[in-house]
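Long-time lurker, finally posting.

We've been working with Hydrolase (Niabella ginsenosidivorans) and I want a structural starting point before designing mutants. I don't trust myself to interpret raw outputs, so I'm hoping someone here can both generate the structure tokens and explain anything notable. Sequence follows.
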Amino acid sequence: MKFTFYGQSCFQLELGGKKFLFDPFIAGNELAKDVDINRIEADYILVSHGHGDHTADLIPIAKRTGALVISNFEIITWLGQQGITNSHPMNFGSYDFEFGTLTYMQAQHSSSLSDGTYAGAAGGFILASDQGNFYYSGDTSLMLDMQLVPYYARVDVAILPIGGNFTMNAKDALKASDFIQCNNIVGVHFDTFGYIKIDHEKAKKLFNDAGKKLLIPEIGATYDV
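Top reply, 14 upvotes:
Generated this for you. Predicted structure of Hydrolase:
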């Protein structure tokens, strides 16, 4: 799997020849000012919840790429009103796509769109496929429901928030890695705002001391995960 980080919680995973873009928020992120959203490719766009730091660039990228947008029912309904019709609505459950089985799993977080529209319940995604398995929690606090992740898939890599305040911090993400039974973690949702600035070395040391790996990615960089 190839992981490309675009800042905050926006990233692309390349798996089985397909490109999956998650939670598009780039143009409004000063830390991602060198990323050109017009060069980002996507076959699928997955949206965990409605907050602006996850959806700000969703409509222009979806229109340009023609990617299939996958999210909860409320966000997909709202997108239809914005002219985005190549979409697939979900609620908490699983569906077999051509690329594998996708499970939309609950997250402990609020959710609304920038115009105040109710955006349904926040969630995350588990993908199980012949090419690999991953879990993206979306914005969430630490929760016992994460213990269900191995029931759906033995994940090779998990993408978890580590910034704290609005979501888990690195200490919580370490405990989450126990719950999901995955020692290969990529951190997101950090440094963008003052509330979520973190000590990178301290966070990585937490994981190293536990015999686990935490990748804190650089914006614009691509990694083999």
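Before you design anything, note these points.
The two ends are 5 Å apart (CA to CA).
The chain is about 20% helix and 30% strand.
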